[in-house]
Each structure stands twice: as C-alpha cells, then as structure tokens.
Amino acid sequence: MTGGPGTGPDPKLIDDCVHCGFCLPTCPTYVLWGEEMDSPRGRIHLMGQHVEGTPITPEMAGHFDACLGCMACVTACPSGVRYDRLIEQTRVAVEREHERDPQERAVRGLVFSLFPYPSRLRLLRPGTGLARRMAGFLGRAHPGLGAMAALAPPVPLRQRLPRLVRARGERRAVVGMLTGCVQREFFPQVNAATARVLALEGCDVVIPRQGCCGALSVHSGREDQARRLARRTVRTFERAGVDTVVVNAAGCGSSMKEYADLLGTRPVFRVADLSEFLAELGPAAERHPLPMTVAYHDACHLAHAQGVRAQPRALLGAIPGLELREVPESAICCGSAGTYNIFQPEAARDLGDRKAAAVAATGAELLVSANPGCTMQISAAMRRAGREIRVAHVAEVLDASLRGVSLGRGA
Q1: If you write DSSP's letter for every residue of 232-297 in order, what string do you get?
Q2: Sign of CA dihedral 261, 264, 266, 271
Q3: How many CA atoms lie within 13 Å of 133's alpha carbon, on the beta-carbon side?
Q4: Residue 57, C-beta contacts closer than 8 angstroms, at least 6 positions apart
Q5: pLDDT tops 50 at residue 323
Q6: Alpha-carbon span 62 to 59, nearest angstrom
Q7: Is the pTM of this model over 0.85?
Q8: pLDDT tens-digit readout, 254-294
Q9: d(CA 307, CA 334)
Q10: Rounded alpha-carbon distances, angstroms, from residue 74 to 43, 68, 86
C-alpha cells in the first residue's frame, strides 16, 4: 500500500508508466467520459506532478476520487505498472492533504463509522425496505445518501454460524473463513452456503469471532483505520491456528492478500478466494443437476486484482444441466467499487445501467456474483431498468447442487 505515514505515490512506480495508452479502453471512467485526466495514464501524470511538488488541488482530487480502483488497467498494462499501489498511495495523500467540503466529510464520516462495524450495520437491517422507499427524499438531501438507500437489499433472516463446522466424510483440509461486514449482515445466506460447501468438500471450517478486514478503508485512503482493522483480523486468524483463510467477498480477499504491503509483515496464513481454493482442492462431493441458464459477473477485485477468472467458471460449468453464459464487456466495472457508488453516484449509476443492459442481453435466469457490493449494485440497476433478475453467489449455486436442492431466491 504505502511506505508509511507521510509518504505519497512512489516515484519509481510512476516512472514505470510509458504512457502507451493500452489502459484507456479498459478504464470505466475513460470509457464514460473520454477525458485524459480520468484515465490511468492521466492520473499517473497528475501523481507525478504531485510528487514534483504540486499541491493536491480540488480538481486533482476530483480526478483521483473519480477512479473506481477496479484494476482493469493493471490487467491490460504491458509494462506491469502497479497502478493498484499507486492509487492507494495517492488516496492516502488526498485524505491527508485535501480539505473536503463539510457535507462530503459528513457523508464519508457516516459511511466509515458504519460499514466497517458489523454490529452497527446490524441496526440498519430492519430499515432496509423503508430506506429504499425513501431513496428519492434522501437523495435530495445528498446524492450519496440517496444512492446508499437505493442499494439496500431485501435482508433475509440472520443465520448464526457455529465456531466450527465439521467436514462431511473424510477430512481433507482445515480452513478459516472470513464472514465479512456487509456479507455477514446483509447476505448471511452466502456465508451459510460457503460453510456448507466447504464442509461437503471435506473441510473443517473454523469461524472465529471477527470484525472488518479493513478493505473499504484501504481502498479509500484511510490508512490508520485500515491498519488497525487488518492487525485485528491477522491476530484473529493466527490465534485460530489455520494455514488458509477462505474469503467469499472479492474486495476483502484482494485487500487481505496485500496485508504484507499494508502492515510491513506477512501473516502466517494464506488467503484464498472460495473459488480459487475449491478449484485447487478438487471436487469430492457429488454434483446434482441444476437445469438453468446462468450469467457469471466478474467482480473487479477478483478478476483484475486477484487474477481469479477461470476457477468460478470451471466450478459452475461442472454442475450438470447448468448453462453458463458470458456477460458482454465483462472487464468493465459495474460501478460498485466498494464505496464508489455512494461517493460518486452519477458515474456509478451510468456504469450500473451499462452493466444491467449487458446482463439482460445474456437472457440468463440467474446472475452469479462473487462480491456483495456488485450484487447490490447490479440488482439496483436491474430494478431501475424493470429487468429484475435473481442474483446469487457462487457458493449458493454450488451449495444447491451439492445438496440436491432448488436454488433459493437471491438478492
């Protein structure tokens, strides 16, 4: 992430950019607006100016804020530019040096006093339906508040998980499981399905009491909060004594895999996305047929940041009767990007509408996602377009197949 307090973007990483332009067609904001300073190449130019002594102006901060941090440019770059590190380092500098207006500070303060704290998120659960109905009113007070309300999903009953879920049949592995914040409180059925799938595939699943992993804070330049939450997460799973922590939320997994950069020391455990881990473990349990058409959505922090693309497709493709369809423009972000759809609601809405049209073009019965933010963003966009579609996590689809049951209604 950064080199420590007081640092900004690394000049050596900036110099890696040869300004070739391969990133341009992959960048969502450049695709939307065609503005050079809203492309990775343009933002790196601005980073260079700041390193050379130019203060962060409101205009400069606006270009950095408009970046989704989707990392599509990292995938596309032939020179191996670490834009992922550069934008995170730059956002620390923006948070340290740029004075935001009072209303924006208030909204950001609200988000970061809520989202990294599951116990506080839990208090919002009963009001999600009302929040969606009040989205228009809240949006007049602040666009970000309206966007946050419109994203609120229907919330199922809470599902309490035991501290240990035993393997079914022969034990093949022992893993820890991250329960997350938004995932835990708004998509508890995903965590329950994850634990069942791992157990059915022969894993003892250790689920310690835990808090936020720090991902949202990392992606928004809130370095001190990110480090505090990351250290607590590392202690939790080191005390649990597991060698591997399985994560079912793309943004969380991406950040946890970069803990060594954030904390300056590597945890003793390995972090693996659920699809990544299951593909390596190999199948043991019988797959029962699920006769349905499914479109798979590439979450940016899974496909671009972690390079996990083939594994979820292989897992879904191995289910008898399931027809997998590709979403057009799959590499373009849906506009969720952690808190982006709250802080940059107009751009996020445009990207969400674009993604909804692409999903609808597949004609699939079900959309499969691997990140709660993407699930909420695309579901909201589909509702706006009058094209509601069931959305489920990879874990839920696998769970239904392994248990031989019908797939319940998703978001």
Answers
A1: HHHHHHHHHT-SEEEE--HHHHHHHTTHHHHHSS--SSEEEEHHHHHHHH---SPPPP--EEEEE-
A2: negative
A3: 4
A4: none
A5: yes
A6: 5
A7: yes
A8: 999 999 999 999 999 999 999 999 999 999 999 999 999 99
A9: 17
A10: 14, 13, 11
Three-state secondary-structure class, residue 47: helix
- Cα–Cα distance measured from residue 25 to residue 34, given in angstroms and rounded to the nearest whole number: 9
The answer to whether residues 227 and 189 touch, using CB atoms and an 8 Å cutoff, is: no
Question: At 368, is the secondary structure helix, strand, or coil?
Answer: strand
**DSSP letter, residue 38:** G
The residue type found at 275 is S
Contact 130, 331 (CB under 8 A): no
Ramachandran category for residue 153: left, alpha or beta (phi over 0 → left; psi -120 to 50 → alpha): beta
Give the integer Cα–Cα distance in Å for 295 and 349: 21
Q: Which amino acid is at 353?
A: D
For residue range 364-373, list pLDDT tens digits in order. Answer: 999 999 999 9
Mind listing the pLDDT tens digit for each residue in 32-81?
A: 999 999 999 999 999 999 999 999 999 999 999 999 999 999 999 999 99
- Between the alpha carbon of residue 183 and those of residues 188, 189, 373, the distances in Å are 6, 9, 9
To 10 degrees, the CA torsion angle through 96, 102, 103, 105?
20
* 191, 183 contact by CB (below 8 A): yes
